[in-house]
Amino acid sequence: MAAAFIGGKAAPAPTEKTTPYARPTNGSSSKSAASAPDSPPRDAPDGSLPPKLKALAAKGFTFSRSAPHRIVVYTDGSSLGNGKKKARAGLGVFWGGEGEAYAANLSERVPGEPQTNNRGELLSIIRALETCPYPDVPLEIRTDSQYSINCITKFLPGWLKNGWKTSTGEVKNVEMIKHLLVLLRRRGPDAQVKFKYVRGHAGHAGNEAADRLARMGSASAEVAERTDWLDPDDVEFPKAKARTHSDVEVEIDPAWLMTDEEMLRLEKSLADE
């Protein structure tokens, strides 16, 4: 379990206990650790919730077990034929299986080009934030996208410092990442976002549901590119809340993530995508 925060400055120097990107101390690689049995995240029983959240639980929403209790949403992206000329990408957002939560679920086609899995993953998180039924309540986004978590917590401080440039040019999917940063900063200090990494296809019912919604979205009709992306340089935030609006907590098991070598390959693939 680990936590990291984003804002105008980089996070403190990483340690095994404070960074989600530390390598396992037992010397095992992420690939060997990934084969270990997995267990679904535990959610809060209704009886442990305060009255306001208990009322939302009655509407089908689930909450994280530890306080502050957060509404749980699963997000996922999919691309049929990813990397090919006629690829079709979709996104899925799963709030719950009944009631108001079920009605809030999303299955959509990724707009414009390119139709990649990475864009589907990012856009699923964006759409979860844009359509969150209760934006004044803390939110826990559960995703199996290492790419999205890396963008938000590992790469972002450097991108902000370097004007959204990398050694090979402009940051890939920069319009989506900037828009996502605005959405995160807009949430008040009492409604911050936590990202929880869950392994895909490992028995998490919510993750499997989001994956199905994403695959349905990729089979939907083509839609035009979005033109309403927000840029943090063009949006004013209250000075007193500027940092708290950009704080993001991350909880993962470091053994599930990529090795340093795999991370380097990921950065190169993003540049070449």
Word description of this protein:
By secondary structure, this protein is an alpha/beta fold. The protein has one domain: Ribonuclease H-like superfamily/Ribonuclease H (Nucleotidyltransferase, domain 5), CATH 3.30.420.10. Helices cover 32% and strands 14% of the residues. The chain contains 8 helices and 8 strands; from the N terminus they run H-H-E-E-H-E-H-E-H-E-E-H-E-H-E-H. It has helices at residues 30-34, 51-57, 99-103, 117-131, 146-161, 174-186, 205-218, 260-272; strands at 71-80, 88-94, 106-109, 139-143, 165-166, 169-170, 193-197, 248-251. A 6-stranded mixed sheet has the order 3-2-1-4-7-8. A two-stranded antiparallel ribbon has the order 5-6. Helix 4 (117-131) runs parallel beside helix 6 (174-186). The two termini are 31 Å apart. Mean pLDDT is 78; it is low at 1-38 and 240-246.
Question: Which features characterize this protein?
Answer:
single chain; 273 residues; Nucleotidyltransferase, domain 5; 6-stranded mixed sheet; two-stranded antiparallel ribbon; 8 helices; 32% helix; disordered N terminus
Strand % is 5-15%
Radius of gyration equals 18 Å
| The named CATH superfamily | Ribonuclease H-like superfamily/Ribonuclease H
What is the mean pLDDT? 78
List SSEs in N-to-C order. Answer: HHEEHEHEHEEHEHEH
SS-derived structural category: alpha/beta
In the sheet with the most strands, the strands line up as 3-2-1-4-7-8
Number of extended strands: 8
Low-confidence stretches: 1-38, 240-246
GO molecular function: metal ion binding; nucleic acid binding; RNA-DNA hybrid ribonuclease activity
Keywords: Endonuclease, Hydrolase, Metal-binding, Nuclease
Domain RNase H type-1: 67-219
Organism: Vanrija humicola (Yeast)
